[in-house]
Amino acid sequence: MAEQKYDIVLFGASGFTGQYTVDEVARVAEEESLTWAIAGRSMEKLQKALSEASSRTGKNLDETPIIIADVSSTSSLEEMAKQAKVVLNCVGPYRFYGEPVVKACIENGAHHLDISGEPQFLEKMQLLYNAKAQEKNVFVIGTVGFDSIPAEMGLEYTRQQFTDGELTNIESYFESKSGPDGAAINTGTFESAVYGLAHWNELKSLRKALYPDPMPKYQYKVPKRSALFYSDELKKWCLPFLGSDKSVVYRTVRDFLSTKRLEKPIEFLPYMCFPSLLSAIGLIIFGIIFYILSRCSFGRSFMLKYPHIVSFGFFKKGGPTRKQIEGCSFSMTFIGYGFSKSEKDRTKPDKKIVTKLVGPEPGYVTTPICMVQSAVTVLKETSKMFHKGGVLTPGAAFQGTGLINRLQEHGLTFTKVSDESIDKKDN
């Protein structure tokens, strides 16, 4: 095997998210004294990406190494992986383009981190490649962007703050804030969602193969909420959050149980908040249209051709402007329930905690921060990681490391809002 040359190789650097990740790698590589290169199909586009990143960051990136690699060429992926300690993979949709990169990384000793929010891809990779990755001492860690680092690290932070007791249930409430210029998302995310919903039935067989035994029963289940409800605590209308967070946390809990890091499972229920009932109903209507169109080939073709029409301008080719991105931010509130060590009656929790995570625009600012700090953690804190390799979730991989602190140093803020006892008469 060729000697590894670069700490980080960013694959897909000329793509929309990749360009923002170039900026972040350039800044962090200088801070951490890391060597790095970018990779992709087109020399011209990669050179342009470096030139534009130089203008944005004020750093001279003209001499940054470039590797030509294409998902359709196994040999090029192998050559890229041979030159990397960590490959940051920004080439999606991962259902079509992810597996060859994962395979090349495992076979050539490079850790693979991606920002996929596609449960089918993530769970398929775990089923097919976990044993081989463990054998090679290679980490394959998915969802290291906004999907699902905030959820995973928010849960871990809440667990850390839940002292003198046992956390059993947690609800997360996501809220986005856009500036005066509005918000938009690049169509790559839209494409992944279209194909993910179209092939949702694949998950049943995947999960049966991954986890033949059912999850152990929860000690306590939070009372079931209606699909649309008003949160008195947050003063917002809420709906279930349909991203990958729940499935990712589910896999993390499974890993913790199997490795004896948890004795009993934690229930995780993610929601998203809306400023008004009307905006929540609007998303429900969009969701119905999205579901109907995704179930047939004609509908999928129409959505992929005209995403701006279907999404009323929220998803658009070319993504948001820099001004739109600068005006956006997000928050996640975590409400946890559990039992104090002295509590003998384990029918209803006697303890409640509220924590909060606040960060910049999720898709193109928070995602690169999370991805790059995950890579730095793999490079510099391997000895602290419980596993020595495998296809893992961020929560399973990074528990016990300094990732939360690293995120706090780069723009995300974790705080404990409250920690109180519960009157069981009112619970």
From TrEMBL:
InterPro entries: NAD(P)-bd_dom_sf, Saccharopine_DH-like_oxidrdct, Sacchrp_dh_NADP-bd. Residues 8-141 form the Saccharopine dehydrogenase NADP binding domain. GO terms for biological process: glycolipid biosynthetic process. The keyword Disulfide bond does not apply. The chain crosses the membrane at residues 268-293. The keyword Phosphoprotein does not apply. Keywords: Membrane, Transmembrane, Transmembrane helix. GO terms for cellular component: lipid droplet; mitochondrion; plasma membrane. Belongs to the saccharopine dehydrogenase family. This is Saccharopine dehydrogenase NADP binding domain-containing protein. It comes from Lymnaea stagnalis (Great pond snail).
